[in-house]
Amino acid sequence: MLKIAWTDIFAHSLPEGHRFPMAKYDLLPEQLLYEGTISAENLFAPDPLPAQYILDTHDAAYWRRLSELQLTAAEIRKTGFPLSEELVRREVVIMNGTLQATLFALEFGIGMNIAGGTHHAFTDRGEGFCLLNDIAIAANYLLKHKGFQKILVVDLDVHQGNGTAQIFAQEPRVFTFSMHCGHNYPFHKERSDLDVPLAAGTDDKAYLRQLNHHLPRLLDEVQPEFVFFQSGVDVLATDKLGKLGMTIAGCKERDRVVLSLCRQHHLPVTVSMGGGYSKQIAHIVEAHANTFRLAQHLYF
Asked: What pTM did the predictor assign?
């Protein structure tokens, strides 16, 4: 069964002024339920993640200052959100959503989070709407508690997964692959195991050519036991923060390529939503919904 992490805290705990396009966290499950792609039993509401699993990834001093709301004004500005107890709780719930989705992926082949993909969070700081790094936390859980020896992160958000790259820079058991717009945030890039920077305006054909060149080869060379897929839809031409030129159909094909390859290689995969900032919320919801529709079609 397809299991998807979702709770209304994903959207409702955000500060006023940050609700759009974050309304997608409510609109997406509503759309999927309405059209019959999923039913209520596909959704699960995660609890906050216990701190011990956060500390497998994040610096203890950073976590203490974050949880006690003691970040500096400069640190808070970098995150893009006003710091609050509700915001931290939201982040900790999202972390467990991805971890629990990972456990479901071990059982069913795939697990998904309506939120997550917080790839700009570093070991000791947050950036770009990310306070903690859900992909890194879940990957470290597999390494430490499940005995995994090789994990592949496929980050296809329009922005480089700089935090994830930093966290795993000295961890050979995790291979980080980021395909992103080269001239976009973050302006200082970290070094992933494989970075594929794309030119502004890259269209469907050029994007998919690059993906189809790199991903099958990585699966053969890296030989991962598990995949984390950051499926941001800020690759769309309509995205306010993106700079690429993809259509909704092209974005759907991107997801089909990733999920089909994981399925063909019998690789469990956890999907985190990532970014999406198109001016029309309908574009964001439709592009994200395609990821979940494909998962249901390909796996169940």
From this structure: 0.96
